[in-house]
Amino acid sequence: MTGKPPLAHTIHKNCTHLGWDRAIEPVRVARSGDRLLFECKDAAGGHFDASSTADDIGSLNPDAANPVTGPVFVEGAEPGDALKIRIDTLHPSGFGWTAILPGFGLLADQFGEPALKLWDYDVSGNRPAVFSDIAKVPLRPFIGTVGLAPAASGRHSVIPPRRVGGNMDIRDISAGTTLYLPVEVEGALLSIGDTHAAQGDGEVCGTAIESAMDVEVTVEVVKGAALKTPYFETGGPVSRHIDAKGFLATTGIGPDLMAAARDSVSAMIDLLTKTTGMSANDAYMLCSVCGDLRISEIVDAPNWVVSFYFPKLVLG
Amino acid sequence: MTGKPPLAHTIHKNCTHLGWDRAIEPVRVARSGDRLLFECKDAAGGHFDASSTADDIGSLNPDAANPVTGPVFVEGAEPGDALKIRIDTLHPSGFGWTAILPGFGLLADQFGEPALKLWDYDVSGNRPAVFSDIAKVPLRPFIGTVGLAPAASGRHSVIPPRRVGGNMDIRDISAGTTLYLPVEVEGALLSIGDTHAAQGDGEVCGTAIESAMDVEVTVEVVKGAALKTPYFETGGPVSRHIDAKGFLATTGIGPDLMAAARDSVSAMIDLLTKTTGMSANDAYMLCSVCGDLRISEIVDAPNWVVSFYFPKLVLG
To answer: Which of A71, A175, B148, B154 has its CB 3.0 to 4.6 Å from that of B164, i.e. a possible disulfide?
Structure first.
């Protein structure tokens, strides 16, 4: 990597916080152009390990969910600017988990029992991760949570994403992508966490392949960008690791996008359980880590079409 | 094409109907396994030609929109079965149009003036279609409307899609895809129309590259399939014709998926007009023919993320 500047700062994983708050003291001060390394915990803060079972879900503390590493004060960043964040490299840990957490997820009303799937994956990313001998999921590590402090004072939950980013769970905020976030406070106050080894659009069961990682990014202040919402630019194609055999796609059709999304995912779980014999819990978790929710049409009033695309490659 | 069976029927474009109605007399009777050719008009029934301008939009008759060719009675199809429809080949006409129709489209409140873009494209599909010297759109012809007669008696508008299919505008119902539709009436009563030369997920301005085409399909009855909604299987990857240079993606974040979808498309129009100088009308139409609406996350309550992906390839 000729010309790659040295790391200006490493933000260690003991520097995490829960929730967004402009009053949290920055742990580092960076300059525009600096390359930074964030050591990120997984969304459960390391609660699970290779010996965990679904019984360990009950002892998860929801108030401790989704710790993020930071915040970093970026010199020169002011409200109305954008913080440009180039994702340079992710260093996955090799251990991951996917869970059905009661009360959480798109079909929480239909999946009330806790379930846990552990992943022991190849950190080089060359081999797909094996899912219960029924599927192989190509990896594409990315950042689930990357955000800035909101202007509004007080502590804000880390679960919902906001205009300043946060828990956006966009599967393409991966190596090579450049993200632009609206700055609302002086210094921007950047934090990163909730890294994932793979996920489809929607994160339908509520969890991805949740996995601790170290993340290298380069930050830059863009003066006066005046963004309304975050945007990003990918470094290349986003589905070629998984699209070679095409897709099975189920639909939901009706006047409510949420209901249509739920119908499309339910239909895919029905189809997968029927055709492969896998359990509904497994199908739901597998859909979350590799299938995509797309809005096929949103103009033929009063009924919209949401489609759930499942990549056939993962079934072999 | 060794082994391709001869066409069992050609359904000519004089055999079109407006709206879905189980009482419409079938124009052909097909057997399960038959290969059929449907001559399809465009969504405006041929209203526009190479000399048309936006002034011709006012004389469009909305009651004559979206004529479909058919219906075809398929022997053996009964309520509770599925009709399997393999899309074999599309023969595009080379002429197409994209319009902003006042009162129609995702941002109808922001785009009140009619606009019309004409396309004269390469029917081989080897060359992208040129958009006002500012963009080149790779073609991927597909069927916008493919559906069966609903069980409920009476005439049903052809605009909204339903459980039995219809105007689904799913961009991947293209050559090589196999579609499964729930049958609600004896003989299924299949009709096809509203062919498109290219479109992104969402069809955000309300129109695609609307274009008359002949379509070859093979139909088969699947007994007792008991589908709730349509599903399909693609013959291979769905975005490789357009993804080589990656994507620009804008976001909408909030508790309402429709508002988030609108915000993401508005943000992309702002970004394209600012960075390329194209007009907002052009950006809106271009987004509709090549950009994709994806639901990035739908679980981090109370805020969801909808992202609009614009392929950088089309800008050169």
So the answer is: B148
